[in-house]
Design goal:
The protein contains nine helices and six strands. A hairpin with a 4-residue loop joins strand 2 and strand 3. It is α+β, with helices and mostly antiparallel strands and 416 residues long. The N terminus is likely disordered. Helix 2 packs across helix 4. 66% of the residues lie in helices and 12% in strands.
Amino acid sequence: MKRSHLAALGATALALTPLSAHAQSLDDAIAAAIETSPVLDAADARVDGARARLTQARSAFLPQVTARGQYAQAETDYGAGTIEIEPRSGVISAEQLIFSGGRAIAGARQARAGRDATIAERNGVRGALIADAAEAYLGVLSSRRAVQLRSANLAALTRLADQTQLRFDAGDIPRSELAQAQARRAAALAAMAQARAEDAAAVSRFRRIIGIEPGDLDAITTPPEAPLALDEAIRAAQDANPQLIALREAEDAASAGVWRAAAQHAPTVAVSLESSTIRDEFLPGYRAEGTAVVARASIPLFTGGRISGEAREARASLAEARALRHAAERGVVDDVTTAFEGHQAAREAELAARLQVEASRTALQSIRDEAEVGQRPTLDVLDAERDLLQAELDLDRAHAAVIVSAYRLRALTGMQ
């Protein structure tokens, strides 16, 4: 085979290089995803709502101050004539809860645990979003790389098919060699169409998760820091996994709910101070002012089973929350184990893929040299080119898998 033919085939053996020196980075993409994600916005809104509920619960410990006023125009007939009056009054009252059997304390504790649970859930959403953003980013990198390699391969096989046609027309090669070249070009066309479809899907996923169009993307060479040992990963997850934290706080909230429900049997005691002023209520010039200190106490005597029913419901909610927390503790160990082993397997697969690329390049060069002196047919060179192309694609995917699995592991172990 002539060197020009081999050079045409060799156009697909491309090195892995960054797409742009001035490109969007993964950190930029993650920041954009956090900024624009409606899912994270919804989680933030839930946190705001939980904080508002805590403010409401804490208000029970503070005085409740109200003001009331009234103004009217009236005519009063006393038999001797009609008098027009404008009665008006104003009242300012302040009431302070003194004792509620622990309901106020339990309500504040319940609201605080609810707030902490929603914060943990928001952190879990954020960690999953970061991992999704990394996967979308690397998906576009890989799909663009695949289009690049497939395009170069198609161009080389098209030139080869044209040259093979000329050689067949000249009677230098048999029809079988021409058919092989044409078949390889047809397969390359199909692979190119598939690569473009996968790239369009990757870009669409990028837009959905990150919220912006992908520009030129920086190549990622180093995965993020992740636990190096399974025991370390499990311990980290048991301490900081957002799902576990949320469920523990939910259990605490349910426990406070039991206390709050039981406290409804206790009396409620409050003290209020009321100051009032009245003008012209009966006659023009009428005036009355007063100040009163009132202690109020109430205790439920019969509620038709409402309080006992609420207490049973609260205990059932606590049992459910405790069971969910136990199930999550088991599930987190399983999830972390799977994620850690998957990350280790991805790292080993990447190493193997790099070795395969190097071996494929060496094999291709040897086959080219042998083909130049007539010791190898064109088909062998085509097979070697195909093997190198597939090895480079496999390396791209393996490298992406290492980075994405590291982010997934970080999300499980609470590393934000």
